[in-house]
Amino acid sequence: MGPTTIITPTAAQDLALAMGINASDLISASLNGSDSAGVGIATTPLGGFPTQGTTFAILSTGRAANAELPNNEGNLSTNLGGLNNSDGRDLVQLALRVKVPANQNCLRVDFKFFSEEFPEFVGSNFNDTFTAELGGSNIVISGNSVTAPLNFAFDTLHQIISVNTVFGVTGNTGTTYDGMTPLLRTQTPVTPNTTTDIVFSVQDLGDSIYDSAVFLDRFTWADEASCGAGAQLPNRLYLPLVRR
Predict the structure, then answer these.
(1) Residue 56 maps to a domain
(2) Residues 76-123 pLDDT 10s
(3) Domain that holds residue 53
(4) Is 244 among the domain residues?
(5) Omega before 50 cis (within 30°)?
(6) Does a structural domain hold residue 203?
(7) Residue 130, class by beta-carbon neighbours within 10 Å (0-12 exposed, 13-18 middle, 19+ buried)?
(8) Where residue 22 sits, what CATH number does that domain have?
(9) What per-residue confidence (pLDDT) applies to 3?
(10) pLDDT the model gives residue 129
(11) How many domains are there within the chain?
């Protein structure tokens, strides 16, 4: 693992710019009260990122800057302050209000989900998740299950990206985390020349230890005849669900 610099942004809008959002399209950005230690901007390569430009954004249920540490801890954990989910656990959000350009009807963003919970807690109550929601946020927790009707970062079975769905998760992440998905690109239809809200969230479930994170980059608009929502490999072929 080469040297990486992960900085804590001074403003939420800096995270948006780091993942490639045009400043002219960004109306506002907020962390919704999240602990600022849970977010970071990486300025050199890590874990296969950036996928565009020289920076990318990190959201983590622990300390985002820990992503660049060697993977020599069995239970990398940081209990964050600030925002919590309804279960009282670490929740980190990046909420954006953006202007959709004219003649663009599709929003896309690259991501990888990383977790220290893999593989020992797959199928358990400790089901950390990542969601990307369009139009606000409506995340509901019931036991170790999460529903989010506004989420557009779901797998081929329309499941939220999580430790328990294990959407192609493998080891050897090149980061401090024990498991990661492959590089995925999620997309959703949008209405041209309108204002919309996008909320990216990572959260612990069951406890506040064993951190997870998402790397975000290459936020782009497109004009497509068909723009179906969901996470795909960048070559537009859906990844088969792999359960370990």
Answers:
(1) yes
(2) 777 788 887 767 678 899 999 999 999 999 999 999 999 887 756 565
(3) 6-232
(4) no
(5) yes
(6) yes
(7) buried
(8) 2.60.120
(9) 54
(10) 87
(11) 1
Report the alpha-carbon distance of residue 214 to residue 200 in Å, rounded.
Answer: 9
Rounded to whole angstroms, the Cα distance separating 72 from 66 reads 12
243 or 53: which carries more pLDDT confidence? 53
Per the domain annotation, does 237 fall within a domain? no
132's CB contacts (< 8 A; 6+ apart) are: 109, 111, 151, 152, 153, 186, 188, 198, 199, 200, 201
Tell me the pLDDT tens digit for each residue of 189-237.
Answer: 999 999 999 999 998 776 656 889 999 999 999 998 889 899 887 764 3
Question: Which contacts qualify for 155-159: CB closer than 8 Å, 24 or more apart?
Answer: 155/230, 155/231, 155/239, 155/241, 156/230, 156/238, 156/239, 156/240, 156/241, 157/241, 158/230
